Amino acid sequence: MTPQSNGQKPSILAVIGSVVAAAFGVQSSSNHERDFSAGSAKTFIIAGIVFTVIFVLTIIAVVRMVLS
Fold it and tell me: How far apart are CA 34 and CA 8, in angstroms?
């Protein structure tokens, strides 16, 4: 799941894991360095936007369910 030190791009699962960990503030420094050295900024930006939209929609759904 984690890319080698040869500059291999991170897998989709690694990107998702990094975005979720960063969103909750528990990203390790080694993963942070790996993401910046081997990952594409475009990939992480898109994943971050998708995560944020899903998170907000989930919060809205939970609030509507509780209030109904």
Answer: 10
